[in-house]
Amino acid sequence: MKRIISVLILFLGLNVFAQNIPKIMKTEFPEVALQDTLITSDGDSVTIKEVFSNYKGKIVLVDLWATWCGDCIKNIPALKTLHEKNPDVEFVYLSMDKTPEAWKNGIEKYNIVGQHFYMGNNWKGAFGTSIDLNWIPRYLVLNQEGKIADYYSVKADDPKVQETINSLRKK
């Protein structure tokens, strides 16, 4: 009996930390989510809507990450490979680091090329809630109109990411 209880506790404990794949794969951001603010590398405030509107007409890969996230760091080589294979894609990084200093140090330390914004440890903000954020890294691919083409990927080398980018190029 103790063994069964131990196994159940272990199973339930692991599920607490597991990713929950969203049941609905959304294609648009609600307006309230787009009003969440980010900090630029220059220290200015900007809304997510303003950031995304800068990339109209382009394919965008959005990476939600943090320097404290082991899975995020492990994905950096695959992310760089993805970037090299897709120079026409805009890479936008939204950091969930606990401090701006950790965020800026991480960009430099890991030599991450792209557009960087700090959103802080804001999992439960309007943006995080709207995309069912429960794990990082999390990758979203936006189409040329700013709509979500790939809603849920947690690995940069997930074939679905490249397939989505390829399909958007054909449009």
Automatic annotation (TrEMBL):
This is Thiol-disulfide isomerase or thioredoxin. The keyword Disulfide bond applies. One of its GO terms (cellular component) is cell envelope. GO terms for molecular function: isomerase activity. It is found in: Cell envelope. Pfam families: Redoxin. It comes from the Bacteria. Keywords: Cytochrome c-type biogenesis, Disulfide bond, Isomerase, Redox-active center.
